[in-house]
## 1
Amino acid sequence: MVIVSDPGDEMKPIEVEDKWEPSFMRLSPSKINTYMKCPREFYYKYIAKIPEKKTIHLFRGTLVHAVLEDLFKKQFKSFKAWEDGDPAAWMQDQFETRWAKDIDSKGWLWELHTDEEMAAMRVETEELLQNFVASVDKKLNEMVEWKIYKSKYQAWNCVAPKYAEKWVKSHDYAVIGIVDAVCNDFDGGTTLLDYKTSKRYGPYLPEDYYRQLIVYAFLYTLEMGEMPKFVGVSYLRFDDTFYVKVNQPVLDEAKELIKMVHDCLKERMEVEEKYEQVPQNLCKWCSFHKSNGGPCDAVVPKWKPKGKSYKKSTVKSENVVLSEEEFLAHTEIPEEEGMVKGKVVEEAPIKNTVWDD
């Protein structure tokens, strides 16, 4: 599925206004999305820096991204290495080693999740990684069978990313991000991909994912001097990708979004009261809400059906349109960071010369 934006594929130079300056904080797509969701949560997380509660979902996501980065960046840099090696066996070894190190070593996770939940997550993660390897082999075979390429060697350049875990940043706009994969097509066009282990899959692109993608496109264009053709979310669970067509209006939208958040931070500075609460159903899973031991006292709104009130009917079923918030209220707990109940884990900060907020 491709989401095509407004016309205007010709790139124009991106310039920073002479008088505009960023705020006191370096932003990232996740910070921008947190601010857009709830400024008060942003304050607790990035200004007050209150320790968050962590769950198996957070550690699993980190594990998957680390393994996929090493897959092409270290172990299988060429098709010859892929063909001569055993990617499935390597993936299995990486999974078992990292699961023991990153998950099994944290015994307190079993206090938060049942044995059945932990076992199911282990099986799901193993299958997710093995499915990724199988999908690469499937694409290589089909591209040759369908005569898109003459050989798997040629197809490899389309399937394997040019970069894995590509850091993109801008000092002028004080924003940084990590693109999971940068791929080139047979016409030389560039596509940026972000891997998702989330279950948020359907015939649409969530707004926070869209914001993340266009910021990546903006940063990549600034850093590489080349506008990517597409940016996409790759749902690893379902081997499906949703794309956004990149053009000048998309880059302008990302720039204005970044500037807007910086301007809001400059206005609010570090005053908690200036970061308004946004009461929503998701508050129930926020680490900072009072129901989870946090300082936020936002009142979670009660769910109400849309439309006029009606009496009970003998009709067996009725069509009801639900908003995304209402839908989440009646589905399982989301697996996004900061939205699930968990345990506070104090860990020593890891210094990074590129990104150290």
Note: The chain has a mean pLDDT of 86.
## 2
Amino acid sequence: MFKFFKKIYKPLFCFCLCFFSVFVLIGCLGGQTNDTSSGKKSGKRSSALHQEMAIGSEAPDFTAKLNNDETFTLSDKKGQVILLNFWATWCSPCRGELPYLKEAFKEFGPKGFNIYGVSLDNDAESWKEFLVKEEMTWPNVTDGKSAPIVEEYGIRSIPTNFLISPEGKIVAKDLRGEGIKEKLAELVK
């Protein structure tokens, strides 16, 4: 009898562990939708907003206070190519994109390209320190995860970005790495 349990112990333990992990994962993901009775959009609606913002659609206008205390209104920036970049200091993939963003900003900034960072950080002081430490010289705003712009653009994960044409249309989204410069080379002459 002992030999029988010894043979099935490891496979049974692995099966139970996998089953439990999947159960917990499904529970965690299912809990991410917000309560619509409190006036917040559900995760499904927010995701639908992100999908609705298809290539060629008008970028939703917004106004926000930047890290340099200036006010930014997207519609005031028509005529520029803009990368609206949603990120956070605690997001490892976001930090991994920084070298590519810096390169693109250095190369295409003088030609009419600008980056506007929208941080999901809640700690404004550590966010500002991070901007200085990482030499992120483009304008940034942070209002945390509950900022209206985050809901308006349907942000469910970061990094997320939208490349906006001089006419205010979304021409690309979720660009990564060298893809940023490649797309900018097509738009910025």
Note: The two ends are 77 Å apart (CA to CA).
## 3
Amino acid sequence: MTVPRDAPDSLSVIYPSAREGDMAKKGTGLLMVWADVPADKEDEFNRWYNEGHLPERMAIPGFLSGARYEAVKGGPKHLAYYELESAAVLETPAYKKVQANPTEWTKRSGPGTIATTFIRNVYSMIHPQAVTPAIAGAPMAPVLQIGRMSVPPAADREFNTWYSTIYVPNYEKVPGVIRGRRYRAVEGTPTYLTLYEFEHPKVSESSAWMAQRDAVPANEQMRKTMTHASGSPGVYVKTVELS
């Protein structure tokens, strides 16, 4: 399913899965896969992801939720976002077996074959320090804002303290922000990912969001320590979910 990059709202298709009895929908690990694909291959790429790859991955124990998103700001365009019990799920025999035996459809239409940009990163949550019941029970958000960044080692401790105790909590006060979480990469680069869940794609264009940007004197100086990856921050609208 293709959603225009200027889409005003979340447009998503929800496919049923066989795992409706699972209580937890969120964990401490993320698998995030970004891709750009040629326009003439998008229809087949989307069909492969929605009908083949996403259900295949969600059948693996430890995969709690899975959804696909498309960028309306930033990039890469396509995002597959999986909530994991922990990053260790990707080291289990069940996952390794599926990973080592791709289907013929995957070999033909997967991002490893056709993508012009292909990023696969694995993350472990660093903020908040634990998955609360509210987080664990929450559905996949209609919209995400994702920042992917690195900082110099000398600034790492101060940066993390500031980001987790000042920057994210202040943005969580903005109307339309559901929550913010932070992650450290255990596979892939750059080192850090910030995941904001939004009610709609215009949240970070609001005056309330802009007011928080420099609400604290330290914000401007700390932002200067960050180096964002290409396309970051990106705003993504949900298109497909397994539920």
Note: Helices lie at 42-58, 93-100, 104-109, 111-114, 133-136, 156-171, 207-213, 218-223.
